Amino acid sequence: QRLSPDGSVVSQRSRELTIKLFGMILTPQQVVERICDDVRRQGIDAVLHYVRSLHNPNADASTIRVPVERILDAHRRASPSFLECIRSIRANIARFQTAILHRDVEVDDVAGVHLQHCYTPLHRVGLCIPGGAAAYPSKVLMTAIPALCAGVEDIAVISPPTPFGAFNDDVLATCCELGIREVYAVGGAQGVAALAYGIDGIPAVDKIVGPGNLYVALAKKLVYGHVDIDSIAGPSEVAVIADLTTRPEYAASDLIAQAEHSPGCSMVISSSKQVLDAIDVSINEQLKTLERATLAADSLKAFGISILCRDDAEVIAITDQLAPEHLQISVDDPARFADRIRNAGAQFLGHFTPVALGDYAAGPSHVLPTAATARWASGLTSNHFLRSFTKVQFDQEALRAIEPFVTHLSN
To answer: What is the pLDDT of residue 14?
Structure first.
């Protein structure tokens, strides 16, 4: 709950910036409401005010959009191995996302009646690409390629004006490789509001997708209804199901990989105390050698848990209640759990399917429901970029046949 959009887990720097910007202590919800309202009313002037206050005091309207030549230059300077990696992953994602794409359906089983359920791609979408603590070309791949597979024509990317965001060569080279030339150096709630309402220089979109911090999540929640969104995602989370066949060092790596997002939620569930203890030992050993060890350790202390269960049935029941974003079933026979668990954003089965495969290369998008919303929400797919509608056609005889029922019900 604390890590969900209903919570208020923000950094000390964020609290200090809130006081600097508004002259008082505000909740994240209040901050987002003020920013989005300012952008809706004042447009580019409000966006520039927040960009200057948060990132670049010299920003002006001409610096909001990343020049196309800068994007092309990043691609030209990218290493051949990086581009080969991007192309290989693109093929994996496109193969999966194309295979699951909805197709039109026709129903003609009554004489004179022709019914169709049709799909059409959204025209224009916006992608939120984080760029605070690290660069995420993977986010570009996992959000843009499903949209491209669906047939979306216009894709706009927003990312913070930082060396890890809109000014990162790997991010820009990935955009270029996918044919994206519209990148804006603006993040946070002000970026979401600009995409939703449209401002001078940033045309409005039909849908906003992609992850971000608490302010991005709350801004997406606020603009929903004016535009569509994919989800209101919180920080990353993982639940690892372990038994006596689990390699403790593998499970520990999966738990740390989410914790180092800082914040990130890491949970391990087992009916074996021996395994839980071994995983705990391995976590402490690995933290001694990792670059982001302090951040990961802080997350594990605040948002990490080991859950000892009586048996497999209780493991399954608790997992379903947690409804984790990533579920790593690290056992020899993962089907004995996977086939009985209803709620998870994505399942990773067996000892050799770490969550990092899904994060980077396997094919399904890594934009997944968090904070137990996997009870009803689904991960991002190409189908989220389609809008469905129906076509109905009757001939005269079919109309005569159904008319009494229409008349009776309307009366």
So the answer is: 81
**Regions of the chain with pLDDT less than 70:** 7-8
Catalytic pick among 261, 326, 366, 384: 326
8 A C-beta contact, residue 71 and residue 183: yes
Query: What residues are paired with 330 via a beta bridge?
Result: 242
Residue type, 339: D
Amino acid 116: pLDDT = 97
Count of CB atoms situated within 10 Å of the CB of 354: 19
Catalytic choice (325, 351, 366, 384): 325
What pLDDT score does 287 carry?
A: 95
pLDDT (0 to 100) of residue 3? 75
C-alpha angle 344-389-395 in degrees, rounded to nearest 5: 140
The model's pLDDT over 114-158, given as tens digits with 9 standing for 90+, comes to 999 999 999 999 999 998 878 899 999 999 999 999 999 999 999
| Alpha helix segments (H runs only) across 120-225 | 137-150, 169-177, 188-197, 214-223
366 is catalytic: no
The Cβ-side half-sphere exposure at 99, using a 13 Å CA radius, reads: 8
For residues 267 and 134, what is the distance between their CA atoms, to the nearest angstrom? 23
- Cα–Cα dist 66/56, whole Å: 14
Type of residue at 211: P
Instruction: Please give the single-letter amino acid code of residue 186.
Output: V
| First and final C-alpha spacing in the chain | 50
33 an active-site residue? no
